[in-house]
Design a protein that fits this description.
The protein is an alpha+beta fold and about 350 residues long. Helices cover about 25% and strands about 30% of the residues. It is built from 9 helices and 18 strands. The strands form 3 sheets. Strands 1, 2, 3, 4, 5, 6, 7, 8, 9, 10, 11, 12 and 13 form a 13-stranded mixed sheet that branches. Strands 15-18-17 form a 3-stranded mixed sheet. Helix 3 packs across helix 5. The radius of gyration is 24 Å and the shape is globular. It starts with a helix and ends with a strand.
Length: about 350
């Protein structure tokens, strides 16, 4: 197992172990959050059951609670670093840390001082996380911020002493950012850099552009010009370009709640008001909401959740417009709607579904 895989296993084990602890004495609303977490991925169910079985086994080892877990961990080889589980004990309840030890037994303690460092305050290394087709995953960062990855998405994250940086390498992610005035939080794609100001926002890196939608607070958006790229890499901001001409200034725009921005590969930035911005993140509930969207767009979204794609043949069929709410995991519901359209032909092929005009 390589370093990246070990770190992913560590994070998954942490989350599952945390839920084992929380569900001992769940507070109001925790049951609903727990069910939502289980629904995010079959892996979450598997990891929770694994942590629960390990927890039960460890309960029998020290049923009387005579062992001091912190003291035991302190005796572990100095090269091994335990990662803390970020959960708060309910009022009046003494937290017992065997579940955290269970997570360590499942892989948390495989991270070493020399190699783990993204989770530790002292280092700033890029770490990548991704989701498979149809999978979603939520990551809680060391600073308290939360990153939710949509299907078929990939991010690289680096938390440094002065900045917090995320590169959205593909797909879509929802960010809930913990505000730190002296350590800005930036999300970048090839098209734009988005700097958060204690907020919740969605970034979707598409083939032709980047879409940003703000649910709470505000962000500052800067098209990713060459000058900005150099500035972010730590170089001096250029004052001249070839031929002695003055470089174009780096211009940022502010985006507030219920607003959406589109940044193209050419650097064009447009902003519009959105009355139903929560539709943008309905994917967190595995719903896809479309309002007067082209069939090309709708099928493209469904295909992010499918191993066998739906194909459109002919430009005429791609530009047909529909409105509807669908289950992201039930492409048949979309196909049933389209099959009732007398203008369309919906047929199975060897590697998927083909839709064309009659």
């Amino acid at each position: 197992m390589d370093q990246k895989a070990r770190q992913l296993e560590s994070l998954y084990a942490q989350q599952a172990s945390s839920w084992v602890e929380i569900m001992r004495h769940p507070s109001r609303g925790e049951d609903r959050r727990f069910v939502a977490w289980l629904k995010e991925s079959p892996r979450n169910v598997r990891d929770f059951l694994l942590m629960l079985s390990v927890d039960h086994a460890l309960e029998k080892i020290d049923a009387a609670r005579l062992q001091d877990i912190d003291a035991l961990l302190a005796r572990v080889d100095a090269r091994v670093v335990p990662l803390s589980v970020r959960t708060a004990a309910p009022a009046g309840v003494r937290r017992f840390s065997w579940a955290a030890a269970a997570a360590a037994a499942a892989g948390i303690l495989v991270a070493t001082v020399a190699g783990s460092a993204w989770f530790l305050h002292g280092r700033a290394m890029w770490q990548e996380f991704e989701t498979a087709t149809g999978e979603q995953r939520t990551l809680e960062l060391e600073d308290g911020s939360v990153v939710s990855l949509n299907t078929h998405s990939r991010v690289a994250i680096r938390l440094g002493a002065r900045t917090r940086e995320v590169r959205l390498l593909s797909g879509e992610a929802l960010f809930r950012v913990h505000h730190e005035a002296d350590r800005p939080f930036r999300v970048s794609t090839d098209d734009a850099v988005v700097q958060a100001v204690g907020t919740q926002f969605d970034v979707y890196r598409r083939d032709d552009d980047t879409m940003i939608a703000v649910l709470e607070g505000k962000v500052n958006i800067t098209p990713a010009t060459p000058a900005l790229q150099q500035a972010l890499l730590g170089g001096a901001k250029p004052s001249r370009v070839s031929g002695g001409a003055a470089a174009a200034p780096i211009v940022s725009r502010s985006l507030g709640a219920s607003q959406e921005a589109r940044v193209t590969h050419e650097g064009t930035l447009s902003i519009r008001e959105v009355s139903n911005v929560t539709d943008t993140v309905a994917w967190r509930e595995r719903r896809l909401i479309f309002r007067d969207q082209t069939l090309e767009h709708i099928v493209g979204e469904f295909n992010r959740y499918r191993k066998n794609p739906i194909r459109l043949e002919g430009s005429g069929v791609m530009q047909r417009v529909y409105t509807g709410v669908f289950d992201a995991d039930d492409a048949d519901s979309l196909l049933q709607v389209l099959a009732r359209d007398p203008a369309l032909s919906v047929n199975e092929s060897g590697d998927g579904i083909v839709i064309r005009l009659r």
